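Exercise 7 asks you to align residues with tokens for two separate proteins.
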Amino acid sequence: MKKIDFSKYQIDVSDGVFTFKNENTTLGFVRFNINGEVEYIFVNPIFRKQGLATKLLRLVKEKTGKEIILQEPISPLGSKLLNSLKRWK
């Protein structure tokens, strides 16, 4: 699994959203609230399995100072992420 060099990409921060992007595309984003609840997380298929979802979730944890709480997944990939995060904590 190749890791992304995050220093090469721009991160936009708005109220409750972190977005990684370059001049051509969005790599991924996470939407969250002040309680540390992740409402939605997306990683562009081209950039999956490179540590981006983990990086986004760490940013949420740093910003909120709370443990990550994931809402119920709406897709099979979301369920897979939820299972992998149980090992991450």
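Second protein for Exercise 7:
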Amino acid sequence: MRRNIPLWILFLGAILFAILFHMKQAGLNLLLFNGFILGVLLIYKRINFRNFHHVILTMGMLLSAVFSVLTNSGLAIFMNYLSMILLSAAAMFPETRSIIHLIGIKVLNVFYGFREFFLRLRQVDEKPGKFPKFWKWVKILVIPIAIILIFVAIYRGASPWFDEMAGGFFETIGNVLTSIFGEIDWWWIATAMLGWLFLVFLLLGKANSDIVKSEMKAKDVLFRRRNNRIYRGRKTALKAEYRGALFLLIGLNLILLMVNSLDVINVWFGFEWEGEYLKQFVHEGTWLLIFSILISIAIILFYFRRNLNFYPKNKALKIVAYAWMIQNIVLAVSVLIRNMHYIDYFNLAYKRIGVIFFILAVIVGVITVMIKISKPKTAFFLLRYNALSIYLIFLIMGFFNWDVIIARHNFDHSETAFVHYDYLVNLDEKALPCLEKERDELQKIDELQVGQFDFALNYMSSELYYCRIQEKIDAFVEEYPERHWLSWNYADFNAYRMLSGESGK
């Protein structure tokens, strides 16, 4: 049976949050904080490991926390916080079948969580004894002051004049408080307050009743709705809609067949690079094709939203719909091949990696649309399975140390692909061992680059790149030993070990 999480847990968690994260980078502290959250949810029976979403999101939270420590990936850290939020939402509404509804529950829980907190404070205050007087003063002074300070911080960031005026005021207040209480680390207190806000959002509140009703009404299987209206004296409106859909999909199939044929000829097998930037070929062309695939899915969903699924003579329509979806998969593969050509000549970058995973999500989406047509299924079925697939794809993306992969790949392929120093110099510190190159090695790369890429002279020189990387290495090697052990992660540790070892030779 679910148990209420006591308010003291929130204050204990806020103190722990400040200890773990104040003036520290994400590392072991994130893994420890995950352990605290998971422990609270287990102790107060908010997680049921027979529940599908509870299992998936718990695994997602723990895996992303582990890979945050291993790879120090920003995406892994983001997915960890997202997994925590989604898991807490699933704990509030265990019956949910959709991550989309979990997101909606958590968005509205910004209000429900704090409402529950203040209601429970009132209940404590009404109990007899001396201790409730503490909560009275919390309500009268501490909470209003905390809210005022939050808004002061917002206004200081928005107005330089208010910032200047408030800065002097707070300096005076700080001096007075320091003379009374001694040195106080106000940033530590601010970090604790941030942790408290996050924990209230995470652990308190309830599932919105409208979202719960919407979830309970939603079905995976589509059922037929009777419609006896006559359409302009002809058999039925359904037959007219069927003919319109058939005509449209046949026409779109023929157009897409021409596009795919040209792509197979020119992109799959006949592509030849002639030294151009490939901007239109990849950037503009890729996103337009992806946009067309999404519109294609929307058109299919529109026509197969209701009774056309049950029309007795809809076999021809289903065939052309399948054909169009298969052609869209071919189109997605063409987009992927365009992207691979781009990587072949211009090396790896975050957006090019993102396109690969995005195409994977699109192909999953197209396949689920085909399942919807064949069964038939509802739009809710599509939303919940595609939301889950997107979550898993992003989770897996966070498992990789992309900065290191990009740096290593781009220099390994410097003989055939453009090495963009301007981009590489901004990669994370964990990639520094792969980014560090000797001057003579960079000069050899320059000779290859200028010979193949006429535009190479428009970008950062290898000499400037060498100086910038050396500056970053010196700063990193000097700063790393001062980091707190709670900020430890393997990616940065390994980079420091390799760089300091080389410098010691």
